[in-house]
Write a structure and sequence with these properties.
Helix 10 packs antiparallel against helix 11. This protein is 38% helix and 16% strand. It folds into 2 domains: 38 residues, no CATH class; 298 residues, Alpha-Beta Barrel (TIM Barrel), CATH 3.20.20.70. It has 344 residues and is α/β, with parallel strands linked by helices. Helix 4 links the parallel strand 4 and strand 5. Bound molecules: 5-azanyl-4-oxidanylidene-pentanoic acid and magnesium ion. Magnesium ion binds next to helix 8. 5-azanyl-4-oxidanylidene-pentanoic acid binds next to helix 10.
Length: 344
């Protein structure tokens, strides 16, 4: 059938003339052609799975604001690491739930070589050595005020905090942690941590710096998960970045790379894809994105209400990180996704 416009010229002729015969929809007409030309795809190799560890044994404990996410015993973490290995997920990231009675002003529990993260790390290394372990370096899981550093009045002290972070990094590396993830946003911490690790012989321990970590509303459920929700006094805007800034992220990343970061990270993820894209292109250093607890909770809540297809939304969101230039993603969806993904 030939349709004609007002002038009597066929629409087909007009479109062909205007597009020089190029019809973009040809490539989208079937599943095989879409698969054939797809530019970006996701595999289990792209995933880092953040897990929450708690004291005691027994069943996994649900995190109310993160449906289907649980706080695990040390033995549960070992099970999770086995699952990661079986699913082809290269790395698990450990986050401790710390009871109020183990927290203090200076976050001393961070240097306890028998703390939860260290015990979980040792247990995983012993049982599942083929899975990488990432441990955050920051004091917030251990401070009574919920800040990432040491406080004086209402100020977070940079240099005193960096000294503490170096001790924390060494304790974690001693416990088998493969990747140190400084998430504190103090200045100069990457160089000091690198030096501290090297001095005690941990030259091969990697550093993935949270280079551009924004002061964000998207961390809310995570703070519940690790028990710092109610504790935080004020906010983190004097050390985490202002969400209006992009050039500043470039300067932050340049600094961390110059100080010895092997990999960099942007956090949060979905609202900051422009930053992921900019940093990955600008530096060509492996760049990761953290799809935060708030992003996870949004998708899960909407899916739980039947407002969107959760399965499709999670795959789309994670693929978008790769399209933006991320080498990989820290995501609470990791095991669910990996179970549905082809292995490279
Ligand atoms: N340093 C780790 C985090 O702050 C995670 C935040 C989140 O998942 O919301
Ligand atoms: Mg910095």
């Amino acid at each position: 059938m030939t349709r004609t416009g007002d002038s009597g010229v066929s629409i087909t002729t007009r479109i062909d003339a205007a597009t020089a015969g190029l019809r973009m929809r040809r490539l989208r007409q079937s599943d095989w052609s879409r698969r054939l030309v797809r530019e970006t795809s996701l595999t289990a190799d792209d995933l880092i799975w953040p897990i929450f560890v708690r004291e005691g044994g027994g069943a996994p404990e649900p995190v109310p604001s993160m449906p289907e996410v649980f706080r695990l015993s040390v033995e549960g973490c070992v099970e999770a690491a086995r699952r990661a290995r079986d699913l082809g997920i290269p790395v698990v990231a450990l986050f401790p739930y710390t009871d109020a009675d183990k927290r203090d002003e200076r976050g001393s529990e961070a240097f306890n070589e028998g703390n939860l993260v260290c015990r979980a790390s040792r247990a995983i290394k012993a049982a599942v050595p083929e899975v990488g372990i990432l441990c955050d370096v920051a004091l917030d899981p251990y401070t009574s005020h919920g800040h990432d550093g040491i406080m004086e009045g209402d100020r977070i002290l940079n240099d005193e905090t960096v000294e503490a972070l170096c001790r924390q990094a060494v304790v974690q590396a001693e416990a088998g942690c493969d990747i140190i993830g400084p998430s504190d946003m103090m200045d100069g911490r990457v160089a000091c941590i690198r030096q501290a690790l090297d001095e005690v012989g941990h030259r091969d321990t990697l550093i993935m710096s949270y280079a551009a970590k924004y002061a964000s509303a998207f961390y809310g459920p995570f703070r519940d998960a690790v028990g710092s929700g109610g504790m935080l006094k004020g906010d983190k805007r004097t050390y985490q970045m202002d969400y209006g800034n992009s050039d500043e992220a470039v300067r932050e990343a340049a600094q961390d790379i110059a100080e010895g970061a092997d990999m960099i990270m942007v956090k949060p993820g979905m609202p900051y894809l422009d930053i992921v894209s900019r940093l990955s292109r600008e530096f060509g250093v492996p760049t990761f994105a953290y799809q935060t607890s708030g992003e996870y909770a949004m998708i899960m809540a909407a899916a739980g209400n039947g407002w969107l297809d959760g399965e499709r939304a999670m795959i789309e969101s994670l693929t978008a990180f790769k399209r933006a230039g991320a080498s990989g993603i820290l995501s609470y969806f990791s095991p669910t996704i990996a179970a549905r993904m082809p292995r490279r």
